[in-house]
Automatic annotation (TrEMBL):
Compositional bias annotation for Basic and acidic residues: 608-629
Pfam families: DEAD, Helicase_C, RecQ_Zn_bind
Region (Disordered): 608-639
Domain annotation Helicase ATP-binding: ranges: 91-266
Name the UniProt record assigns to this protein: ATP-dependent DNA helicase
Entry-linked CDD domains: DEXHc_RecQ1, SF2_C_RecQ
Length: 656
């Protein structure tokens, strides 16, 4: 019989064996992880190679079998003489049956990339779009051009819904484009059944997905309903998918391809630069009344008689500012998601027809709005990301003439927005990118936009069309932040010891020796203005020297300031942190802006040396190749005669 000692000895032996096995398992798990990483890397490399191979094709050629039809449709239906950059390539690729993602700046003509092909070949194009206002605007525009289109929304009657859904099954239907929201694919069995019938009959020509960046959680505007669109490539394998966006970084584009199950697809990308837009950061007053006064002066002075948009970050702000501006005799409309659909449509139409000079709106307004003569976009509050800002400000100047993008900045707005976005994936990171843009006073604003979107631009790309380049500072002053970091960290630690939480404003008060005496530091107040003090706190926040700590109350979310992880480095003797001092350049509120904008001459480097050329406008000229015997397939493109006018109907969302 074994003794206790024998059993304990045997137990130790088993423990040793287990340790050996654990070590072996750990080793193989590491090998497995490395192999998985290698597999992902290889797949990404393959997909990139496929994309690069497709990109090497001359998609902008004019010898495709449908090229003459494309030209006729462009001129006779859309009344456009030439294509903008990348449009023709996108059109030819989707007509060739290729999956593609098109990245074009706001106002570059993305919608033409699927609207025109819809008229060149028989069948139906389904357009997926996230906002009702966007779809209403496009369908209205198509109707004005006598192009048959339908819009399926959550308003209207059941009868209208049935009629529209039956279009998918009707082989005799003349409808060329149907607009739907993404939730339709997840929530309407009837819609999907009819769409499958449309595909089986060979009538489903393509699926265009507008604002395709909404697929990605890494994007700035993720929408869960977009994830259901990943089934489309498998459900309709012979139907090309055309994704379109104005704002997508390289990582977002890769993610979108995976989500839509079209890895390695063609990516057509235009430059993000909008050379006719002037970018300006304006110091925002602390009181709402002073803010409204600035807006009043701008609308009555600098932008008198011009159309524009004023963006706010809340429904309350949009209503309050609209009310105050109307009291001062200005014609402005209010637009936000809580208004009923008919009211939103009326506001939009009054602005489009210039009854309203400006719309005071939340971000519910504007995506895809087709109004070319918007001369100004004012952000009363900063955007929640650079992507959002680029898209919102890009609604100005779509006609190519000078337009202005003005952002009113104050530190307090950072926390108004952060409490709204902190719970979303990457929300704070995206917001802080926008804050960096606003804090900048030494670098060209276009350069910052270019860096964000993985592009490289030079001075000629700005052409003094931002406040920094208009008023360059040869020797920008800097403030040494090291002693201030220590002071601010000490204030926060002192408050922690007293079980007191500090908002940014309370931290600022204690730093400038204001507010409760027990929270103040023992030294002197900073030898600069409180406005610069706000910039310092925001600068340390985006640099992770300070962090936000969010707490819920019954009525709101509050942001408190804590010491961040990078603050530990401050105690190092070699630590250096200097912040360039930003100054607000003069901006005349009541005199009209310059109107003599001219495109810059851009220097292009090649192997033969440097050459100068004007910005390229990609025009469509159909050339016939001598000796070519390629037979062109008969197309249903609309030529000289106008198509039959078909009434556009807004229909109800079916629940089956």
């Amino acid at each position: 019989m074994k003794t206790v000692e024998d059993l304990e000895k045997e137990l130790k032996s088993v423990d040793k064996e287990i340790s050996k096995v654990d070590a072996e398992v750990s080793k193989w798990k590491n090998i497995q992880r490395e192999l998985h990483e290698k597999k992902v890397s290889l797949k990404n490399s393959i997909d990139k190679l496929k994309t690069d191979t497709l990109a090497s094709v001359d998609w902008a050629g004019t010898t495709y079998e449908w090229s003459q039809d494309v030209q006729n449709t462009l001129k006779n239906v859309f009344h456009i003489e030439s294509f903008r950059p990348k449009q023709l390539g996108a059109i030819n690729s989707t007509l060739s049956g290729q999956h593609a993602i098109v990245v074009m700046p706001t106002g570059a003509g993305k919608s033409l990339c699927y609207q025109l092909p819809a008229l060149v070949k028989p069948g139906l194009t389904v357009v997926v779009s996230p906002l009702i206002s966007l779809m209403e605007d496009q369908v209205r525009s198509l109707t004005n051009r006598c192009i048959p289109a339908k819009l399926i929304t959550s308003t209207g009657s059941k009868e209208e819904s049935s009629i529209a859904l039956d279009i998918l099954k009707d082989n005799e239907s003349e409808i060329k484009l149907i607009y739907v929201t993404p939730e339709r694919f997840a929530k309407s069995k009837r819609f999907m059944a009819n769409l499958q019938k449309c595909y089986a009959d060979g009538r489903l020509q393509r699926i265009a997905i507008d604002e395709v960046h909404c697929c990605s959680q890494w994007g700035h505007d993720f929408r869960p309903d977009y994830k259901y669109l990943g089934i489309l490539s498998n459900m309709f394998p012979n139907v090309p998918i055309l994704g379109l966006t104005a704002t997508a970084t390289a990582s977002v584009l890769t993610d979108v391809q995976k989500i839509l199950n079209i890895p390695g697809c063609l990516v057509i990308k235009s430059t993000f630069n909008r050379p006719n837009l002037f970018y300006k950061i304006l110091e925002k007053p602390t009181s709402q009344e002073e803010c409204v006064t600035i807006l009043e002066k701008l609308l009555n002075g600098r932008y008198k008689g011009e159309s524009g948009i004023i963006y706010t970050n809340s429904i309350k702000d949009s209503e309050d500012i609209t009310k105050e501006l109307r009291k001062r005799g200005l014609r402005v409309g209010c637009y936000h998601a809580n208004l009923d659909a008919s009211t939103r449509t009326q506001v939009h139409l009054k602005w489009h027809d210039k009854y309203y000079q400006a719309i005071v709106a939340t971000v519910a307004f504007g995506m895809g709005i087709d109004k070319s003569d918007v001369r100004f976009v004012i952000h009363h509050t900063i955007s929640k990301s650079m992507e959002n800002y680029y898209q919102e400000s890009g609604r100005a100047g779509r006609d190519g003439l000078r337009a202005e993008c003005v952002t009113m900045y104050r530190m307090q707005d950072v926390f108004k927005v952060s409490t709204m976005v902190f719970s979303s994936s990457g929300g704070l990171e995206h917001l802080y990118g926008m804050v960096k843009y606003c804090l900048n006073g030494t670098q060209c604003r276009r350069l910052l936009i270019a860096e964000h979107f993985d592009e490289t631009w030079g001075d000629a790309d700005c052409n003094k069309m931002c406040d920094v380049c208009c008023h360059p500072v040869s020797n920008a002053k800097e403030v040494n932040l090291k002693p201030h970091c220590k002071t601010l960290a000490g204030i926060i630690q002192n408050a922690d010891q007293q079980d007191v939480k500090l908002t940014a404003q309370k931290l600022l008060d204690a730093w400038f020796l204001k507010g409760p005496v027990n929270l103040r530091h023992k030294g002197k107040e900073p030898n600069f203005s409180r406005v610069l003090g706000e910039d310092v706190i925001a600068y340390l926040l985006v640099g992770n020297y300070l962090i936000e700590d969010f707490h819920y109350t019954a009525y709101s979310t509050i942001s408190y300031i804590k010491v961040g992880p990078n603050m530990d480095a401050v105690d190092d003797d070699s630590f250096i942190l200097n912040m360039p001092i930003r100054r607000y350049s003069h901006f005349e509120l009541q005199a009209p802006p310059a109107t003599d904008y001219k495109p810059a001459i851009i220097t292009v480097k090649s192997e033969e040396g440097s050459k100068t050329k004007k910005p390229k406008i990609e025009s469509l000229t159909v050339k016939s190749e001598e000796g070519s015997k390629t037979k062109k397939r008969k197309s249903s493109a609309i030529k000289e005669s106008k198509p039959k006018i078909i009434k556009t109907v807004t229909i109800i969302d079916d629940s089956d």
